[in-house]
Design a protein that fits this description.
One of its GO terms (biological process) is prenylcysteine catabolic process. Its EC number is 1.8.3.5. Pfam families: NAD_binding_8 (PF13450), Prenylcys_lyase (PF07156). Keywords: FAD, Flavoprotein, Glycoprotein, Lysosome, Oxidoreductase, Signal. The protein is an alpha/beta fold and 514 residues long. It contains 14 helices and 21 strands. A seven-stranded mixed β-sheet has the order 7-6-16-17-18-15-19. A hairpin with a 2-residue loop joins strand 3 and strand 4. The structure holds flavin-adenine dinucleotide (FAD) and 2-acetamido-2-deoxy-beta-D-glucopyranose (4 copies). One 2-acetamido-2-deoxy-beta-D-glucopyranose binds next to loops.
């Protein structure tokens, strides 16, 4: 166990007084009997999980709590979590979270602040396959595409862009609220502050229902919306309306990624937060009381974890859980809490990402002339006969000067998303020839099933849960937003600044502020 490091400059005597004062005041906060405000920073904060959620939490907590607090971040796998790359034929490709929306401002700022750079997405021609034929095939001619879309779907497409834009406008309010330090104690109150009952209601209805009510045609939902849900979340139009809308925002032409790999953001945040990375698996969290010499009781949390060196434990003032607690995901036991912290476990969706170097079999998709086949991304409708959700040509995370996405008639690297591992027979159907296959299996995102009830963000007095937000929608930016929210919330609780938590009518209130 380590104790708070004192600034090197202070004398031994001053140091011990200083530490004593800190612990003394913590004890008052722990018991909260006299309601006295905390004036001293916490000594130690633990973050569990070094994905984008945990590393951005480290970054924001450092900003809020200052340089003296010790921040430990536990990781049992690799830094980056669901942001990871695979190596095929000597080049790296995004295997998990891959694209970022141009209006994802936290991700954008991280990249800027950390001195990273942006990799724009290659233009690609998309086709939508229904198991028998392409219901839509994009061509290189913009006007031609527009005419085709209007011909088939009327003004549904234009209406979708307007619908998503309206949602994004409201969603973007979060950045303003957070810049004024407002925080939320539940996912529901966060969504309500952004888009009122309409946003909350989206958690209760499927995207199918939501869009039908908004006047979209069933044909458009089946042929455009469902393929977007399948490629982004491996699920159908039964997902909740909020994650559905997030998924449709992923059809924006301005999507980008981080040059060198999205996980570089996690490494950068970790480095700049000066958090200590502990490679180990957290197994349990327990509340500990310590009698003080002065009479009070100090309440701390004990984190037990396994490393190569055996089982160890440390004590912390504040704990941030930055990994899903759903079935089979993190395996952390909360010992001795009353009421128990377990009640919100649900299931995650398996998605398999397979990378293949090869020639695609055009006749698998009902095309005869191989040379006519110019698509580089194929999405699929909800036809149950299909074993794949999508297939797309990918480029490596490091831009090479002369790398343009080649049409399907040439050999290149393809990424297939499917619910199960691809069998050899399936690969032989899908490709006329191939070599080099790499698979990455994920428990990728929640299985969405409205009405959706989000788990609490506050699991106990000073235990906060970032991934509660994934029940509304899973995306890198969602984790970053939730991480900043938890940094603000824990800070406000610690210093008793309750007027910055769950405020109503924020949008109106902030209109007058500049
Ligand atoms: C295939 C796929 C495609 C995706 N595509 C996109 C996309 O294009 N755009 C987008 O925005 N999002 C996408 N996402 C979603 C996005 O990747 C996630 O929402 C985001 O990365 C979640 O980050 P996180 O930090 O909250 O969780 P994670 O990245 O899962 O981090 C949690 C970390 O905690 C660690 N951990 C768990 N339990 C313990 C324990 N007991 N002790 C210690 N450590 C523990 C894990 O090893 C992990 O590293 C995709 C996800 C997948 C899987
Ligand atoms: C959502 O559904 C739950 C019950 O499942 C209900 O209590 C809640 O009021 C509903 N919320 C909205 C905004 O419709
Ligand atoms: C969407 O809802 C309609 C009825 O409201 C139903 O007929 C249709 O099958 C649903 N489609 C999907 C894909 O869930
Ligand atoms: C979590 O525990 C379950 C059963 O106890 C096990 O099947 C699963 O593999 C564990 N998950 C991880 C990631 O360790
Ligand atoms: C390609 O797809 C067609 C149609 O599904 C199939 O008959 C054929 O065996 C596949 N494989 C090759 C190598 O052409």
């Amino acid at each position: 166990m380590r104790w708070p490091l004192a600034p090197a400059a202070c004398s031994l005597l001053l140091c011990s007084l200083w530490i004593g004062a800190r612990w003394g005041s913590t004890s008052k906060a722990g018991s909260k009997e006299d309601g006295e405000k905390l004036r001293y920073p916490p000594s130690k904060i633990a973050i569990i999980g070094a994905g984008i959620g945990g590393t951005s939490a480290a970054f924001f907590l450092r900003q809020k709590f200052g340089r003296d607090v010790l921040i430990d971040i536990f990781e049992r796998g690799e830094v980056g979590g669901r942001l990871a790359t695979v190596n095929l034929e000597g080049l790296e490709y995004e295997a998990g979270g891959s694209v970022i929306h141009p209006l994802n401002l936290h991700m954008k700022n991280f990249v800027k602040d950390l001195g990273l750079s942006v990799r724009s997405r290659q233009a690609s021609l998309t086709g939508i396959y229904n198991g028998e034929e392409f219901v839509f095939e994009e061509s290189e001619w913009f006007i031609f595409n527009i005419i085709k879309l209007i011909w088939r779907y009327g003004f549904n497409f234009l209406r979708m862009y307007m619908w998503v834009e309206d949602l994004m406008d409201k969603f973007m309010r979060i950045y303003r609220y957070q810049s004024f330090e407002y925080s939320f104690s539940t996912v529901e109150s966060l969504l309500h502050a952004l888009g009122g009952n309409d946003f909350m209601h989206k958690l209760n209805c499927s995207i199918n229902e939501t869009m039908q009510k908004a006047g979209f045609s069933q044909k458009f939902i089946n042929e455009i919306v469902i393929p977007a849900m399948r490629v982004n979340y491996g699920q159908s139009a039964k997902v909740n309306g909020f994650v559905g809308a997030v998924s449709l925002a992923g059809t924006d032409p301005g999507l980008w990624a981080v040059e060198g790999g999205n996980k570089l953001v996690c490494f950068g945040l970790l480095y700049s937060s000066k958090a200590q990375l502990i490679l180990g698996t957290v197994t349990s969290i327990k509340e500990k009381s310590r009698p003080q010499r002065t009479g009070g009781i100090l309440k701390l949390y004990e984190v037990s974890y396994q490393t190569a060196a055996g089982t160890l434990s440390n004590l912390y003032d504040i704990i941030i859980i930055a990994t899903p607690l759903d079935h089979g995901m993190s395996n952390i036991s909360f010992l001795g809490f009353n009421p128990p912290i377990v009640a919100f476990q649900k299931h995650f969706q398996q998605t398999v990402a397979t990378f293949i170097y090869g020639h695609i079999n055009a006749s698998f998709f009902g095309c005869q002339e191989h040379s006519d086949f110019s698509l580089s991304e194929i999405l699929t409708t909800g036809n149950s006969k299909l074993f794949l959700n999508s297939i797309g040509a990918v480029s490596p995370v490091k831009s090479i000067n002369d790398h343009t996405l080649k049409p399907a008639s040439t050999a290149c690297i393809w990424k297939v998303f499917s619910p199960e591992s691809l069998t050899e027979e399936q690969l032989e159907m899908l490709f006329t020839s191939y070599h080099a296959v790499i698979e990455r299996k994920w428990l990728a995102y929640p299985q969405y099933n409205p009405p959706e009830k989000c788990p609490p963000i506050i699991l106990h007095d000073r235990i906060y849960y970032i991934n509660a937000i994934e029940r509304a929608a899973s995306a890198m930016e969602m984790s970053a937003i939730a991480a900043k929210n938890v940094a603000l919330l824990s800070h406000h609780h610690w210093y008793d600044k309750l007027d910055r938590i769950d405020q109503e009518d924020l949008n109106e209130k902030l209109k007058s502020e500049l």
